[in-house]
Amino acid sequence: LEKMKKYSEAVKLLENLLDTDFLHRYRGAWYERLCLDLENHLKQPMLALEKIELALQDPMVRGGRRLSLSQRIIKICRAKKNGDLDGKLNEFMEKSDWQDPGSEDLPTVVISGKMVSKDGVTGTKSVFILTKDGETTYCNVEELVREHYKDKGLYEGSHAEGAVLNSILTLLLWDIIYLSEVPDAFRDPAQAYPLDWDTDDFYPRRKNAIDARITEIGGMSKEEVCDQLIESFNSNLNVCSLVSWDRFRGPDHLAGLVRCMDPGKLALILSRMIRDHRTYRSGLPDLTCWNPEEERMLFVEVKGPGDKLSYKQILWIRFFNEIGIPSEVCHVDPTGSLDSKGFKRKSPKKGSPKKTPMKKTTSTTKTSDFVDDDDESPVKSNNKRRKSRGKKNKKSAA
């Protein structure tokens, strides 16, 4: 309907969908489309704000969808054409559940690197030139950032986004996630996860067991948590599951990261993930760096040229810093762009191109675009005149 520009019908359909009691995970997306159609296409900003207010009261609208709707509020209220809605923005921001959609409060660092020019090709990943100890290598933006943090002492690292924390979550709650007593959770022995994983039914069905395990982990020492992780790793190695086995050299490699986190803070992370895994499974930082000897670690969200933070990434970085887990955004600024052959690319000169003056013609003869076969062209006629003049000059000389 929207592609056919039938926005009124699209709004009615979205309102009917929101009146139903199924497909709860799509309610946030439906509210976003509804508010977009009302504001941009039907020019009803006040009604759009009313729908956003309903959306923010809906318990099924969670995670990044809430930040997206908050950003829509700011856009509507600060638009010049909606100058009378400034007061509505203050009303929303004064509410206790207001979440700032901006990223200005997040710790941010900027590093530079030499990037290979894409030669005008779009849709390709950025490639950087890394020179270290006299050797030059080509790498992607994540590897460039990892080398930066290696120089700061965080020599262990994994560019795995959510695979690291999901593996820790699975290993420490293995017997609960793969609890066979839950009806209809497993129908095939080769299942990597239960059928109700990533649904709203997973946590309520195992609530008592999950809450007890999270409380137990929060009260353990670092060594006790690492011992449980290593035991679970060794006893379930290479079993088809949610653990990314190939990401780690062994149980001690992963345990070195767990040792860098306070058990109470780790319990908060695991609780956030297991209670609503579908909402918080994405948006986790790209890079995890740590130093097991110094028990230091850092989550890093890597942003290359032109990349922007998503709302889910903002929520995770903000959460990590609120509970005391170091996390930051690292922007990579490309400098000294080189072409594909390794030579420094010349930037085109700025300024308007010089105009070449048109030569004035003294001939008053008009020629048409198309010349008939019977007509003489101006070039041929000029050649004949020159020949006739030459004959006259020879006669006069004689």
Describe the structure.
- The protein has 398 residues and is α/β, with parallel strands linked by helices.
- The protein has helices spanning 7-18, 27-41, 45-57, 64-78, 86-93, 141-150, 163-172, 174-177, 202-205, 207-218, 222-235, 251-258, 263-275, 277-280, 311-323, 378-397; strands at residues 108-116, 128-132, 135-139, 156-159, 287-291, 296-303, 327-338.
- It has a 7-stranded mixed beta sheet with strand order 3-2-1-7-6-5-4, with helices on both faces.
- Helix 15 links the parallel strand 6 (296-303) and strand 7 (327-338).
- Mean pLDDT is 84; it is low at 338-356, 358-381 and 394-398.
Query: Gyration radius, to the nearest Å?
Result: 33 Å
Average pLDDT metric: 84
Main sheet characteristics = 7 strands, mixed
Number of helices: 16
Kindly, what is the distance between the CA atoms of the first and last residues, rounded to a whole number of angstroms?
93 Å
The helix/strand order is HHHHHEEEHEHHHHHHHHEEHEH
Structural class: alpha/beta
Low-confidence stretches: 338-356, 358-381, 394-398
The side-by-side strand order for the widest beta sheet comes to 3-2-1-7-6-5-4
Helix content: 40-55%
Q: Tell me the β content.
A: 5-15%
Give the overall silhouette.
globular
SS elements, strand count:
7
